[in-house]
Amino acid sequence: MVQPRSMLASTPVESLIPPHALASDKEDRPADLDDALQAGLLDQPAHIEPKYLYDTLGSSLFTAITQLPEYYPTRCEAEILQDHADEIARHVGQVQALIDLGAGDCDKAEKLFPLLRPESYVPIDISVDFLLAAVERLRHRHPSIRIHPVGQDFHQQALSLPAHIASRGRLFFYPGSSIGNLDPAQAQLLLSQVCSLCPGGGLLIGVDRVKSRDILEPAYDDALHLTAAFNLNLLRHVNLQLGSDFDVQDWKHVAVYDEAHSRIQMFLQAQADVVVNWPGGQRSFSRGERIHTENSYKYTPEDFTQLLMSAGFTQIQHWTDSRGWFSVYSARSPESRH
Known about the structure:
The protein is an alpha/beta fold. Helices cover 35% and strands 23% of the residues. Helix 6 (107-116) links the parallel strand 2 and strand 3. The protein is globular and about 55 Å long. The N and C termini lie far apart (43 Å). 41% of the residues are buried.
């Protein structure tokens, strides 16, 4: 992925942590990233990390998915943030820096600007060129807010922030139930990192709730097949990164609800026997064999409250939509952690 020079010039270089895992020039990528991709493809069962869903096209497709009638989380979350705006603002308190985890097009955070009035905004996302396009738009609309974009895969590396962001008055914003992409142990680790990075500050996070299969599965396997395109685009992205020869026509998107673990699982399933090659390796897939690409865990309010507490947060409050399908939590980090 190559960002236009004009857009890069408008972004302070020191505010960007290059996401090496998604570098556009394969020669600049560490060899261990190729090793990780190959190891996942050769594993039993095969898997590819979900970060490869989010190149520029993947990020655009996900934005389109959020507009689908089947995909309720975005609308439910927006309803909560609108209907409970004053209560949320009171619980959150004063915000110096709004730190947006998985910012994407920054649209959700931008809607909070009038409510929270942050002095600075730190959008963090794995897809740098997609992020910078959004930042360019925001800088024109909100010239009084200092914007410091960060390119980082915070699911795979320790979460870090630009050194000049004040340690006090930080609010981490993690919308869309993206926390569900991590298993509970990984989620606790990330939440603990967040808690340690915002002493006296807080977290505002969207969380999808446990529901019936007939609601959940269509949200991840829509009638227009946008989610299928989003998942299949991962193979195109892997081809660019690894030099592999996946043909998307050999594969189909599958999404199933695993009730035992309260999670949606997304896969790519071979439609016929196929051999995939890449420099230095290959893998034969039988018809019906699957590559795991993403999880999306769902939580009861009690379970997620316990997860926040185990990560060190206190003063936890949550709100839900009119159907009880989704929750937004506000949690505070102690001034100091012992």
